Amino acid sequence: MFEPSCSRCADIVSRFRFSTNLAADGPTIPPKEDGGYGISVTRRGLPVREIMEAASSFCALLPWPRLQRSLSAQINRLSMIGTCDLVYLGKGGGSTNKLYGRWDQLTWSHPTTLPLAALLYFGWQLKFGWMACANPLEMEKSLKIAYRQTHDNRLPPLMKR
Ligand SMILES: [Zn+2]
Q1: Rounded Cα distance, 39 and 22, in Å
Q2: What does the DSSP assignment read for 2-55?
Q3: Which of 28, 56, 124, 130 could form a disulfide linkage to 19, CB 3.0–4.6 angstroms apart?
Q4: Cα of 70 to ligand 1 centre, how many Å?
């Protein structure tokens, strides 16, 4: 069944510069500047429900309940993915966490590291977009407000707060 993707979230990040692919190194990697960023889906792979089934079998076999619980909770965020292509909004700022730093952090210690790894493993393609600005905190706030106002007071699917 074809579900058209949500156009409301595209409007929210229409002024962002997007890389062609989240995983692309080279000239489109985000700059070491302050700003707001977003992660968007460019191609959907295996349905989310099937990814979650595969991931829960993996988690269920881990011989450490605490780790099982933590990884399952992270994977469960995928269940929020619907027709919105914009799955995460955030900010990069301060001395070490510039936009480039946040993008790099996606590979090792970001709230979305595990869900993103699961999506990529199962054939999804994602892109990273950003807009540099002097006050990333304010920008993140206004992006969240814009998203909430057009999405029944919800946040993007991979965001908790
Ligand atoms: Zn949307």
Answers
A1: 8
A2: --PPPSHHHHHTTTSEE-S-TT--STTSPPSS-EEEEEEEEE--S-HHHHHHHH
A3: 28
A4: 27
Helices (H), 61-156: 65-76, 99-105, 113-121, 136-150
Would you tell me how many other CB atoms lie within 10 Å of the CB of residue 141? 13
Between the CA of 38 and the centroid of ligand 1 the distance, in Å, is: 12
Distances (CA, A) of 113 to 7, 29, 101: 25, 17, 14
Within 13 Å, how many C-alpha atoms sit on residue 52's CB side? 13
- Dihedral sign for Cα 131, 148, 150, 113, please: positive
Domain ranges in the chain are 8-150
Cα(14) to centroid(ligand 1), Å = 13
Residue 3 pLDDT > 80: no
Which residues have a Cβ under 8 Å from the Cβ of 91 and sit 6 or more positions away?
Answer: 34, 35, 36, 37, 102, 136, 137, 139, 140
Q: What pLDDT, in 10s, does the model give residues 64-102?
A: 999 999 999 999 999 999 999 999 999 999 877 899 999
